[in-house]
Design goal:
With 202 residues, the chain is of the alpha/beta class. The chain is built from eight helices and nine strands. A hairpin with a 2-residue loop joins strand 5 and strand 6. The chain binds guanosine-5'-monophosphate.
Length: 202
């Protein structure tokens, strides 16, 4: 049994990563999702261990010290991080794992796991991103400007990713990501090791 694929879905705040992953969960239930740890407070309806592992800052900092996180980042005043053991165990069982994380964290994963598949979700345009952040109705004009500034810097980091998926429509973006995963499973490198086990010269 080969190792599973580590698939990192990242991109600027407001681009719709969460909605695409929600659609992917329904369409591809065989894929496992990593549940992150965070110090942010649960939103209404969020459950500990399902949406996030909700931690105090002290608990989170102890996870950092114990090297229990594959990556972590501070985002808008809170810590977010990926528990390492779950990801490693799931990959070793031959299952694919998806991380839905912000851009700084994705780049840290790339340093440790260059064989991962790094997918950057793009807005159709910066104007459209502004409309989406605005439509959440939760941000002040100043916060929208700050998020737009961060987003335009984050988009410059696209060069570190393997794929760019434009989120023009959620269903289309979800299909593109599924196609990428299928194509990655068909890479010849994944089969060469097996051929050696079959004692076939390659
Ligand atoms: P939210 O507070 O809206 O749930 O998440 C804020 C941002 O943190 C989103 O961009 C989300 O993708 C990102 N995020 C969630 N979990 C993690 C994680 O484990 N690590 C990192 N680096 N970012 C995360």
């Amino acid at each position: 049994m080969g190792k599973g694929l580590l698939i990192v879905i990242s991109g600027p705040s407001g681009v719709g990563k969460g909605t695409i992953c929600g659609s992917l969960r329904e369409a591809a239930p065989e894929i496992t999702y990593s549940v992150s740890a965070t110090t942010r407070k649960p939103r209404e309806g969020e459950k500990d261990g399902v949406n996030y592992f909700f931690k105090t800052r002290e608990q989170f900092e102890s996870m950092i010290r114990n090297d229990a996180l594959l990556e972590w980042a501070e985002y808008v005043g809170n810590y977010y991080g990926t528990p390492r053991d779950f990801v490693e165990q799931t990959l070793n069982q031959g299952k694919d794992v998806i991380l839905e994380i912000e851009v700084q964290g994705a780049l840290k994963v790339k340093e440790k796991f260059p064989q991962g598949i790094f997918i950057f979700v793009m807005p159709p345009s910066l104007d459209e991103l502004r409309v989406r952040i605005n439509n959440r109705g939760t941000e002040s004009e100043e916060s929208i400007r700050a998020r737009m500034h961060v987003a335009s810097q984050e988009i410059q980091l696209l060069k570190h990713y393997d794929y760019a998926v434009v989120n023009d429509r959620v269903e289309l973006a979800r299909q593109r990501i599924q196609s990428i995963i299928t194509a990655e499973h068909c890479r010849r490198e994944r089969f060469l090791a097996d051929l050696q086990k079959w004692h076939v010269e390659v």
